[in-house]
Amino acid sequence: MIDPKPRMPPAAAPPRIVTMLVDPEPTTLLALSNCADPTMLVSGKIHEGLLSYDFDLTPRPQLALDWSTEPSGLQLTFRLRPGVRWHDGTPFTSEDVAFSLMLLKQLHPRGRSTFANVTEVETPDPLTVVIHLSRPAPALLRALAGAESPMIPRHRYADRPPSASDDRPPIGTGPFVFLDWVKGSHVTLARNPDYWDAPHPAIDRLVIRFIDDQAERLAAIESGAINIAPATPVSVTALDRLSRNERLIFETNGYQYTNQVIRLEFNLDHPVVGKYEVRRAIAHAIDRNVLVAQAWMGYGKVAYGPISPDLKPYGEDIPAVPHLDHGEADRWLDAAGFPRNDNGLRFALPLDFVPAGDGYQRTADTIATALAEIGIDVTVRQQDFPGYVRRLYTDRDFAFAVARSNNMFDPSVGVQRIYWSHNFRKGVPFSNGSHYANSEADRLLEQASVEQDAAERRRLYRDFQARVAEDLPDITLLAPTQITIVDRHLTGHTLSADGTNGSFAELRIVG
Fold first, then answer.
1. Do residues 78 and 64 lie in contact, with contact meaning Cβ atoms separated by under 8 Å?
2. Where are the beta strands (DSSP E) in 44-134?
3. pLDDT tens digit sequence for 443-489
4. What is the pTM of this model?
5. Is residue 66 classed as helix, strand or coil in its secondary structure?
């Protein structure tokens, strides 16, 4: 008997969509000539690296299947994964790797030091890459994650390399393909149907939202409009409230690759803070423990040197630093030729802060209060993220700033770029913004970057930290506790040392 009723096709499954918060909005989506945190978070989903890393920073395959290092440390060989294609269908080959590595050396804010010893990248066949070095580079094998050292297509960028604010639609090999960027609102990424690691990815869309307003951001997380929010994106005062939400979990793993610190960065070209006596006075006026307790509500730990206490073993060697002593601060300012006037003031300075959460503004406000006690009238100045970057690194129109920087997985990568005199690069974000130049600091950094003996390398970085603590091109204040706030129905978000900077290929909605 024929059923007279037509059969309806089964209903299509609803799209699997995850929404991630990124704050602030990135200026570009390719982490090659710009390594700001928001850019890395997006770029890592589109662009992959040769390697990924376990939480202890042990390398594991990504675009490279295996690798070897000559005993001399002067040659690294990689065998690439076959069958990988760029999002436009073009095959990924060793020529792309060679092009990417040399461009990273030239343009990446950290790449100038990371790849400083790379002299040539040989491509004997489409799936083999041989990196030749002039001197050993112990950190290089840990520098090849996708968000840190993205592989990019030679056929797309050979004629016009990407700039720090490149707005061309990005093309990578990663699990997600760029769909659109609505400025001020969101970026949409779609599942790559031809991804080499099929059947991944496990979701159909990744929507990356930008929400400037703190209250709106908090409400979006609480309501479920945001499913994953990396790098403590809400006020630290709101963390206790969110911790009681049964739908949410706090993930503190996945930050082993970045090791963030918060610093007070001086402009050494400024007529006032360029004076050593003024910087020394400011160092005597700041109480790091108060900053951790009041500005960060205990979500952090005091840091005394350029290297994070979380970056072991190097951050464990803490150099001597000026003690909190307002009387000593007054003596240094008097010696600098800045006596108090009838109102008790010596001079006025603007203080900028990176607009990446209220902890940074509270840090600036707390410092302003402390400096008022020694006669420095501080005006805390606020701007959006592009304006902050432009002021510090292009216009250099600042006295000092509450800045954040990532030490990364090795001091030769994340620390050297901040203090190495050869990395003063006007217009390049997160390079040597203070314009610090000390030949002894350069020597220590350069020697440590090639030293293969672990004990000697540790000694060199200890001596370097002591040099910086004496010169005070900046003051390292604290290492914040990094938290990813995530819906408990998501899995596969924190599987490697770079956490949410990773590819999200295994991100999945469960339950």
1. yes
2. 51-53, 59-61, 64-69, 75-80, 118-125, 128-133
3. 999 999 999 898 999 999 999 999 999 999 999 999 999 999 999 99
4. 0.81
5. strand
